[in-house]
Write a structure and sequence with these properties.
174 residues; 3 helices; elongated; Thiol Ester Dehydrase, Chain A; Thioestr_dom; single chain; HotDog_dom_sf; alpha+beta
């Protein structure tokens, strides 16, 4: 194997985002996400997923073809979410490191492993590689909710408002 990570390899099996995604009926999370910007699932198991991000011109941040790191983060986050694969799952924290640049035309492969299966709060370790060279590593904390986050947030706001009004009434009566 060549040390040049940018060298093309004929033995890469490529599933393009616009191609048929064999896991489309099994993926519960982020159904409206654009695969061209988030990556394509190539392996889906309980608490484990592999994805591929095909870098495109829309992701380029400069005249040299550097891919903006936000796209790498987003693709890693999608891998984390898909490893848990629940409808109402949101990211609440991420500790990440970028180890190398990504350029136009690179294919980034992510592997995500989820931990603490019995808990609503889950940790997911994600590693991103270009041709076996690690360019990204992160740990994402995600929470599995019983309902959509907007509904949960609205209920929480209403609860907090009721508590605040009760405290204000107590102060007025004192």
């Amino acid at each position: 194997m060549s040390d040049n990570i940018y060298e093309e390899s004929e033995d890469n099996h490529v599933i393009l985002p616009e191609d048929e995604n064999p896991f489309r009926n099994e993926i519960k999370t982020s159904p409206n996400l654009k695969l061209a910007l988030s990556g394509v699932v190539t392996k889906l198991e309980k608490n484990h997923v592999k994805t591929r991000l095909f870098t495109t011109l829309e992701m380029v941040s400069d005249s040299e073809g550097l891919i903006h790191s936000g796209f790498i983060f987003s693709a890693a986050n999608y891998a984390a979410l898909t490893s848990i694969n629940e409808v109402n799952c949101v990211t609440i924290n991420a500790r990440i490191n970028f180890f190398g640049p990504v350029k136009l035309g690179d294919v980034v492969e992510f592997e995500a492993n989820a931990f603490f299966d019995e808990s609503r709060k889950r940790d997911v370790r994600v590693i991103g590689r270009i041709k076996d060279i690690k360019i990204f590593e992160g740990t994402f904390q995600l929470v599995v909710l019983e309902e959509h986050i907007f509904n949960a947030q609205q209920k929480n706001i209403q609860k907090e408002a009721a508590l605040r009004r009760a405290r204000e009434r107590e102060k007025e009566q004192a």
